[in-house]
Amino acid sequence: MARKIRFGIIGCGVISPLHAEAIKACPFTELVAVSDLRLEAARRFAETFSVPTYLSDYKELLAMEDIDVVSICTPSGTHGQIAIDAAIAKKHILCEKPLDIQSERMTEMIETCREQGVKLGCVYQRRATAIVKRVKKAILNNEIGKLILCDAYLKYYRDQAYYDSAGWRGTWEMDGGGALMNQGVHGIDLFVWLTGGVSKVFARTAALSRNIEVEDTAVSVLECKNGAFGVIEGTTSVFPERNTQIELYGEKGTIIFNDNGIQEWITMEKGDITKEINIDQENIEGVRSIGHYYFIEDMAKAIIEDRDPIVPGEEARKAVDLILSIYKSSKTQKEVYL
User: Fold this and answer.
1) Is the pLDDT of residue 2 over 80?
2) Can you tell me whether residue 319 is helix, strand or coil?
3) 3-state DSSP assignment of residue 226
4) Pfam families recorded for this chain (predicted)?
């Protein structure tokens, strides 16, 4: 390879170190600039990761000729405009979840990137785990047969201090939602990806415990495109919080997995093979999130090979479209068709 793929990071908050670690660890990427509205935060970040350039205005970063791709690590409600500006500046884009919080803005992001000839990818790092890849393979291979019931339980704990720690948290304008749009979106992405998508939903959402604009608790009943029924439960108000858990029930077997691995894997053909499905996740020195490494590496390869990233914009928006439909159903108290 003639040269490394050069990254810039926009936003130096909580998630950005995972991008920096991955970029530093990948043999064919390098981190050349970071930006944050808080210049001091950008300076500290640059010092920590030995980045030569730090800025307060992301548009100055986009104007740099030696940047190929930007990681967008800003509050959810800002993703769309930054991505559009980046596309116009001819920079490829790796966006943190969610792609954006508005359907129309996601469409504009995708269309602008296609028009400008740049790649648009989104980070859903749970897809990168060995367990999830094996479960996806099992579904594609019909190992548990036709799916009948598919459930996602996304139960976390965030206290009021968490929401008060940043002005954008728990707001419709910048967070775009609560337990589902922020914390639950990863599990919802897995649900959509593994089941093949949702056709309709009936839901209830509310702030039952926290003083926030958006929901801290949500329940929804779904019908999947493949005919299966399902439930998604999401909250940030249960203590202690639970592992993200996905339950898949087919005509020929059951797969249940969570953050601790496979909990149950039983099929008519092979019986209980739960203990046999022991998939070790790869570890990379200096990288806390193997999922972020996977997406950074994939984006670089997508540029080199001139292909779409593993989760392009059209795929990334599906989880958000489902969440927005859940919110609409709760507001209208009617079933919503996707």
Assistant:
1) no
2) helix
3) coil
4) GFO_IDH_MocA (PF01408), GFO_IDH_MocA_C3 (PF22725)
Look at residue 223 and give its three-state secondary structure: strand
Per DSSP, the three-state class of 66 is coil
Those residues whose C-beta lies under 8 Å from the C-beta of residue 231, and which sit 6 or more positions away, are 151, 152, 219, 220, 221, 222
What DSSP line would sit under 160-196, residue for residue? HHHHHTSTTTT-TTTT-SSIIIIIIHHHHHHHHHHHT
- The H or E element spanning position 103 is helix 103-116
**Residue 19 contacts residue 9 (beta carbons within 8 Å):** yes
Closest CA to 318 of 206, 138, 195: 195
Tens digit of pLDDT for each residue in 106-163? 999 999 999 999 999 999 999 999 999 999 999 999 999 999 999 999 999 999 999 9
* Token digits of residue 293: 């490494």
Treating both helix axes as pointing N-terminal to C-terminal, what angle do 16-25 and 290-305 enclose, rounded to 10 degrees?
60
Q: Is the distance from CB of 150 to CB of 317 less than 8 angstroms?
A: no
Instruction: Kindly indicate the confidence band of residue 324, based on its pLDDT and cuts at 50, 70 and 90.
Output: very high
**Does pTM top 0.85 for this prediction?**
yes
Q: How many CB atoms lie within 10 A of CB 40?
A: 11
Mean pLDDT (whole number) for 186-200? 98
Q: Going from the N-terminus, what domains does the chain have, and what CATH number goes with each?
A: 5-125+286-307 (3.40.50.720), 130-280+319-337 (3.30.360.10)
CA-to-CA separations, 173 to 102, 168, 220, in angstroms, rounded: 10, 8, 23
Residue closest to 132 by CA, chosen among 277, 288, 270: 277
Q: Which two tokens stand for residue 151?
A: 């459930």
